[in-house]
Predict the structure.
Amino acid sequence: LRILESGHNLNLYNRTQSKMNSFQKQNTTQHENTADLAQQSDLIISMISDDKAIKEIALGNEGVLNHAKKGTTYIDMSTISPAISEEIGHMAKQKGIYYLRAPVNGTVMQVENSTLVILISGPREIFNINQDLFNILGNKIYYVGDQEQARYLKLSINMMVGISAIMMAEALALGSSGGLDRDLMVDIIKNSAVGSPLINYKEKTLKERDFTPAFSAEQMAKDFDLILQAGRSANVPLTMTAQTREHWSTMISMGRGEQDYFGYADLLEKLAGQND
């Protein structure tokens, strides 16, 4: 939407066609498959749910790389594994297509306000050419390297976000067991040495016990699987990450997989017998 508002015309494709309905009256051309879109585009942007989907969209017989013109720029903004991204990079090079990895950090509100943090790796000269486009989408743009560095950084940040949620849940449960008011704890923690933008952002969620997902436990589990896969491939022990992954499994098994991942705080309170 931000790209449209800036005056660009767009070719669109979504595997769920109904999701394109809101764009019908704007400067867009809707396509029924990836191949048609790729053939008619000089620059392609994708944001896909997981490795399986990106393999189909980017590498499949009807995918971007098998149908885009030589010299096309392909920007993928998904959270996917470095391994599948590397496959895309190899095929893009063989096809003469420029490939930028550009995963994002931010909330729905940041999307609407164009204040996303965008992490980019790939050919530096292609990043330079497209920097104005990235500035439309976000206000903190970081070029971090020429290969898969953006993928590793995105996973590293998500790892810390997920672990922080579990730390907060356990801190609140422990404090509550000692007679502390949970809301007071949230106030003090956010202003302490361990306060962070994440805790500030989740303050309302924790106080109101509204765990409508900004990012669900199921989504966090998917990301932690990617993180652990990357760690195994690089022989990096990720013990705390592996333990944290089990908490997402607990939420999912107890019917809370679609809740916001910070809903673990509520689940832990109930497991500890601290229900209000």
Notes: The chain has a mean pLDDT of 92.
